[in-house]
């Protein structure tokens, strides 16, 4: 999925999608993008010019992965952390990303802002065709870890999904799509937060191997839809219990060769 070269003693430049785009990331600390971001990006589909907001974008992995596959897509990479915003902007300035940089912008903003404060920060109403997110997933007590940058990226607050999905609904166009990846333990909070905002939810469980419990869920929904929730067939990361090789379906999603399209495209 990735190859790495050392940019300095504290950061690396990593290739994704077999070298279709590159990411500047902190080395040995903070959140380093991987398969979660690539699977999240695979949920984004569309022809022609589509606008994507990547909430909590970090260095920009998921948003750039979607834009690399959708050659007319425009992506806004929304991040709060000063340091990760710097990595994101330096990622866009990499010569290897010159083809993507014209269709991507970094926006420093707190995803949990509401109303006038949110709009003043640059997150306007009814703008985006797609809103994607890979929210923090660990208990807030993880903030006590020595790696504060990583703790901030991974620590969950009690109303996290309510706050993030509220913003996603505000900035998505009517009929726009929400896509997110999370731990299965958050499914109840996600469904509750989507209620009255995003309908037609499609949920896919991601399992490491046959017979093992799910470690992630992929969720999509449509703003304003009244369609009922649907559980899709699960995805399995590794077909062979003795191998770490990805299944062909997951490998294709991971490397941007295919998209994981919704079963239902309308309301």
From TrEMBL:
InterPro entries: DNA_methylase_N6_adenine_CS, SAM-dependent_MTases_sf, Small_mtfrase_dom, tRNA_Adenine-N(6)_MTase. Keywords: Methyltransferase, S-adenosyl-L-methionine, Transferase. SUPFAM superfamilies: S-adenosyl-L-methionine-dependent methyltransferases (SSF53335). It comes from the Bacteria. PROSITE patterns: N6_MTASE (PS00092). The keyword Methyltransferase applies. Residues 39-183 form the Methyltransferase small domain. This is tRNA1(Val) A37 N6-methylase TrmN6. It comes from Rhizobium halophytocola. The lineage of its organism: Bacteria, Pseudomonadati, Pseudomonadota, Alphaproteobacteria, Hyphomicrobiales.
């Amino acid at each position: 999925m990735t190859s790495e070269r050392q940019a300095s003693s504290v950061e690396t430049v990593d290739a994704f999608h077999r070298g279709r785009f590159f990411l500047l990331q902190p080395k040995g600390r903070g959140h380093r993008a991987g398969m979660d971001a690539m699977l999240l990006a695979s949920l984004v589909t569309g022809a022609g010019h589509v606008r994507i907001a990547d909430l909590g974008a970090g260095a920009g992995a998921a948003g750039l992965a979607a834009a690399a596959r959708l050659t007319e897509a425009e992506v806004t990479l929304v991040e709060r952390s000063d340091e990760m915003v710097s990595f994101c902007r330096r990622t866009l300035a990499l010569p290897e990303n010159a083809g993507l940089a014209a269709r991507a912008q970094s926006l420093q903003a707190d995803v949990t802002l509401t109303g006038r404060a949110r709009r003043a920060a640059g997150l306007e109403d009814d703008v985006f065709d797609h809103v994607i997110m890979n929210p923090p997933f660990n208990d807030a007590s993880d903030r006590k870890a020595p790696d504060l940058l990583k703790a901030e990226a991974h620590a969950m607050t009690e109303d996290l999904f309510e706050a993030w999905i509220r913003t996603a609904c505000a900035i998505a166009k009517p009929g726009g799509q929400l896509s997110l990846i999370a731990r299965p333990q958050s499914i109840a909070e996600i469904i509750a937060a989507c209620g009255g905002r995003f309908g037609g939810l499609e949920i896919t469980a991601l399992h490491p191997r046959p017979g093992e419990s799910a470690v992630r869920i992929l969720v999509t929904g449509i703003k304003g839809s009244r369609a009922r929730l649907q559980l899709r067939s699960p995805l399995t990361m590794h077909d062979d219990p003795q191998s770490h090789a990805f299944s062909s379906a997951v490998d294709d999603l991971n490397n941007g060769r295919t998209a994981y399209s919704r079963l239902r495209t309308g309301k």
